[in-house]
Amino acid sequence: MQDEADRLREQKQRYLCEEILDKEYDANGFQEYILSMKEDGANIDVWSFAELKDLVSRFQKMNPKQGSEEKAAPPPEEEKRDEPVLRVDQKARLAQNIQLREQAAFEFFKEVECKALDQVLLESSDEIPVIEVTGYEKKAGGFFSSGYILYTVETKSLQWAAKRKIADFVWLRSFLRKHHLGLLLPPLVYTHEVSENKKILKNIRYLELFLQRCILSSSVRRSQVFIDFLNIDEQSWAEKKKALDKLPEPKRIEDYYSATGKMILSISHVNFAFNENIRLYITEGDMVYKKLKRLSKQLVNDFQALSGTYFWFAETYGQLAENVMLFASQTKCEEAETTGRIFATLNNFFYELAETYQKNMAAIHEFMRLFYKYSSMEIAAVREENIKRREIEDSYLRDRTRVYTKKEKLLMEGDPSRWDIPRSELDRVNAEIPGAQERQEAIFHMMLPRDTGNLNQIRERCAYHNERFFVELRRMFEYKNSFYARNFALLIKAISRNDLTVQALWANLYKNFTDPEGLTTDRHLKIPNKNTK
């Protein structure tokens, strides 16, 4: 039954990847949508496959992909009517000119002013504070609402404490993503299935990791919303969220935030190549981490099977020991008493050996299987941001080709009345710029000011997201290095400690059998129960 449930879950996840991620719909928006439909909607197991298909269909209809309308819309009648007719040689020159201009446009650099984030307490402190999720509290549901869990978030160095629901974490990530554009946020991993304490503890670990990753970003540390999340009471936080939900998402570069109030806009072959190659990293990394997750699950199962076998040995030797010891007590046979001690020693040995391999199993589960699951989610977060960046980039490239083509055609036609340049400006260009090629270049940049202005705005947004994505990916890899090292150091420490225990058990067993006086005299046998096996 469990295998069937796992297969169905994988089928649903594969369907969501194909319909939401691969088709470049907003994954965060879909998560918020399903949470609005059910309190535990983010848990894929609460939806049947048919329900999931219906949800995806409705979400896609409500959220058409950016750029679909532009592709479907026919060109304006005026543009069709005014289109210059070009000769064959002009068409070849047009294509060549556009190619040269687009190659030149790859190098763009500009520093602009924007909104500055406040110098808040988290940023001004000497060390980055440590955030911990230290506990939880179960809240009973009412007639119209289901129960939920409040997680306690503590920043002990600042003596802050706050209680937050899973939905608050989801809201925080969504807000930061909308209002700190280009910020590469860590994944938010959780489950709404909290009937067992171990699942709640797993939530605590992942929620804590999410906050610890967030606070490493200077932009997040300067965010007043993040500060409020960490230290204001539940009622104040609910009121804060309600007010912030009314804020519009920034559209212009001037409305973006940065730590200094200035930002670099850059388009170059370097970050274009970097960003293009990230697609291969996302695709390959996703497959690799899923494979590692499956392999680590198999390793957990292997240790579980080995541990179970050792428990069977312990149980069997326990039965032998009980039988022989009963015989020895009734017959006063010293040789049988020694045999009973041998069996009891083997019972204890195999029981302790099985327990040690269970600890190995727990270490593999925590430091490999859950680690690879989180790493896979991290890849999904990179894909999520890359999709948003690519949408803006594709829009810029599409509009750039359209505007450049329109300008080049009008230049070839040679009718200044259609260039939207005042006569006085044309006279000034003709008087101040002697060379014909230089004059044409100046006119190219001046003509069609409305189209040019719109294209420049899109270019600046594209440049911002390209540069920011480049910087954020480097920051992610820098953290990933220490994250990997720390995780596997803990794994090695746990496995090494358990291996030392195993060596000690074998050494002690060897000593017992080379010195019969070392055999256990403890008549308390260790008999495994059904749960341990």
Key traits:
3-stranded antiparallel β-sheet, mainly alpha, 533 residues, two-stranded antiparallel sheet
Please characterize this protein's 3D structure.
By secondary structure, the protein is mostly helical. The chain has 17 helices and 7 strands. The chain has helices spanning 2-21, 27-37, 49-62, 68-72, 77-82, 88-104, 121-124, 166-179, 197-214, 218-221, 224-231, 234-244, 269-331, 334-413, 423-432, 436-446, 449-514, and strands spanning 108-113, 115-116, 132-139, 148-155, 160-164, 257-258, 262-267. It has a 3-stranded antiparallel beta sheet with strand order 3-4-5. A two-stranded antiparallel sheet has the order 1-7. Strand 3 (132-139) and strand 4 (148-155) form a beta hairpin. Helix 6 (88-104) crosses helix 14 (334-413) and helix 13 packs antiparallel against helix 14. It is elongated and about 125 Å long. The protein starts with a helix and ends in a 19-residue tail after the last helix. 23% of the residues are buried.
SSE order and pairing:
Elements: H1 2-21, H2 27-37, H3 49-62, H4 68-72, H5 77-82, H6 88-104, E1 108-113, E2 115-116, H7 121-124, E3 132-139, E4 148-155, E5 160-164, H8 166-179, H9 197-214, H10 218-221, H11 224-231, H12 234-244, E6 257-258, E7 262-267, H13 269-331, H14 334-413, H15 423-432, H16 436-446, H17 449-514
Parallel strand pairs: 2-6
Antiparallel strand pairs: 1-7, 3-4, 4-5
